[in-house]
């Protein structure tokens, strides 16, 4: 059976009260672990985004390959995500914003108590052999209207700051909120990245506008099955997914 390549896009991996997670960005650690275990049982090879991008650029066969990515750099990426990756023996790419280190996480309620990793925590996470640190602009700046020079400056500055901090190459980039202008893919290549990812219905298999399946809190078994095969956005208007979206709306009001 054909196993197409897929890139999964997560945010936080933590047990966060849904009342304090209005955008439904946090996936429970137990759910995340089950999702990855299913990918492994299906025979997928998991790669960092750097390796995924390099294989794609080299024209290599990517069937049955996948990458796990995590946006923003919340503290749970160190405390919850890293131990799961280590236990399962699989890599992951965490995209961080050096201008937001240590600050409260702006996309959950303050009552959730979630914050970004500090500089010291990012350094500790980078020492984990299965974790790749990627770039997410300095301050989570959206690039949907960026000119070629604006996009290049944002990407190059973040890359340089992270490389100065970590002492290693930072070859992977993620567009904040998955938005990017037409000038961004060329700017990402010019800045020295190997890959740049978007998400949702956007993107392609071009290394600098790579599509991802966005993983969210209320994703049920059917939704996860389709997302983990890269099929969700082509099938989400089918009856099972209309029903799932209806159920999700009810979940959000509990």
Give an account of the 3D structure.
Helix 6 links the parallel strand 8 (172-174) and strand 9. The protein is built from nine helices and ten strands. With 254 residues, the chain is α/β, with parallel strands linked by helices.
Ranges where pLDDT stays below 50 over 5 or more residues in a row are 249-254
Tell me the span between the first and last alpha carbons: 40 Å
Structural class: alpha/beta
- Percent of residues in helices comes to 25-40%
SS element count, helices: 9
- How many beta-strand segments? 10
- Mind telling me the C-alpha Rg? 17 Å
Strand portion: 5-15%
Which overall shape is indicated by the principal axes computed on the Cα atoms? globular
Largest sheet: 6 strands, parallel
Return the average pLDDT rounded to an integer.
Answer: 93
SSE order, as H and E? EEEHEHEHEHEHEHEEHHH
Question: Could you give a quick summary of the protein structure above?
Answer:
The protein is of the alpha/beta class. It is built from nine helices and ten strands.
Features:
about 250 residues, alpha/beta, six-stranded parallel sheet, two-stranded parallel ribbon, 9 helices, 10 strands, globular
Strand and helix layout:
Layout: E1 6-10, E2 12-13, E3 26-27, H1 29-41, E4 45-47, H2 49-57, E5 65-72, H3 76-88, E6 92-96, H4 119-126, E7 131-135, H5 148-166, E8 172-174, H6 184-190, E9 195-197, E10 213-214, H7 221-227, H8 232-235, H9 239-252
Parallel strand pairs: 1-5, 1-10, 2-3, 4-5, 5-6, 6-7, 8-9
Helix pairs in contact: 1-3, 5-6
């Amino acid at each position: 059976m054909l196993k197409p390549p897929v890139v999964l896009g997560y945010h936080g991996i933590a047990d966060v009260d849904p009342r304090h997670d209005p955008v439904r960005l946090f996936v429970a650690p137990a759910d995340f672990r089950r999702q990855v275990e299913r990918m492994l049982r299906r025979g997928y090879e998991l790669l960092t985004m750097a390796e995924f991008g390099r294989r794609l650029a080299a024209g290599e066969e990517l069937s049955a390959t996948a990458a796990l990515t995590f946006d923003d750099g919340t503290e749970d990426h160190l405390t919850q995500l890293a131990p799961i990756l280590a236990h399962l023996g699989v890599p992951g790419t965490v995209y961080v914003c050096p201008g937001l280190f240590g600050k409260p996480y702006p996309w959950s309620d303050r009552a959730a108590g979630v914050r970004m990793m500090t500089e010291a925590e990012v350094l500790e996470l980078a020492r984990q052999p299965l974790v790749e640190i990627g770039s997410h602009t300095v301050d989570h700046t959206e690039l949907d209207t960026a000119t070629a020079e604006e996009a290049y400056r944002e990407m190059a500055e973040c890359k340089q700051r992270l490389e100065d901090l970590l002492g290693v190459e930072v070859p992977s980039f993620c567009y904040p909120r998955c938005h990017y202008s037409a000038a961004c893919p060329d700017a990402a290549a010019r800045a020295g990245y190997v890959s740049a990812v978007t998400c949702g219905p956007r993107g392609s298999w071009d290394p600098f506008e790579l599509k991802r399946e966005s993983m969210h809190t209320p994703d049920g078994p059917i939704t996860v099955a389709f997302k983990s095969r890269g099929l969700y956005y082509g099938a989400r208007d089918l009856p099972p997914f209309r029903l799932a979206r209806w159920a999700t709306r009810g979940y959000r009001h509990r």
